[in-house]
Amino acid sequence: VPSGPDHYRTLGVSKDALAGEIRAAHRALARRHHPDLVADPADRARAERRMATINGAWHVLGDPVRRAEYDELRRPPVPRPQSAPEYRSDAFQGVAVSPAVGCALRIGPVVLAVGLLFAILIVTALMTGDGNRPPAFQVGQCVHLHDDGMEVVPCITDSSVIVARGVAGTSCPMGAIAVVLPTRTEQVCVAPSVG
User: Fold this and answer.
1) Residue 145: is it exposed, middle or buried by C-beta count within 10 angstroms (0-12/13-18/19+)?
2) Is 165 exposed, middle or buried (0-12, 13-18, 19+ CB in 10 A)?
3) pTM of the model
4) Which DSSP helix (H) or strand (E) runs through 18?
5) What's the confidence (pLDDT) of residue 141?
6) Which domains are delineated in the chain?
7) Alpha helices by DSSP H, 19-85
8) What's the mean per-residue pLDDT of the chain?
9) Transmembrane residues, as ranges (predicted)?
10) Residues in the chain where the model's pLDDT stays below 50
């Protein structure tokens, strides 16, 4: 709905009034509300404002071009037609397949996913070993220490013995030295052989 004064209402005529009706309404209102007819200054100011409104309405509606423009501006906008949302069906909706193929298309991805998970489980189990393999260095084994690390050797008089095994950073028994294993989370305590 357009804003601004309703010039038809100001002059008291209908929107389809003829030019003669508009002119007659303007003259009648001008005679009734003309400021020269009022003596009181406050009433005169009100009459001047009212007369300005009446003359403004006459200025627009009295000229056919301005009236047509005014009518066009006051016409409510034509609602744009709303298109219904386009329905898109499944691209394969009309394709006919045998029941076996339909079942394979539904079940196939599930079987493939389960098979892939099973294969990952098997490969992981094979790569991590059986878990029952004894550690390379156990308490009581004799070892030979050298610059590259240590190795298990037969127990002879001058070989060192593993006296403890534990988490890296724990203290060893008196007289033993800590050797951190390649895992870096474990260590063995090695004591020199007595005898």
Assistant:
1) middle
2) middle
3) 0.40
4) none
5) 87
6) 7-74 (1.10.287.110), 142-191 (no CATH)
7) 19-33, 41-61, 64-74
8) 85
9) 107-127
10) 134
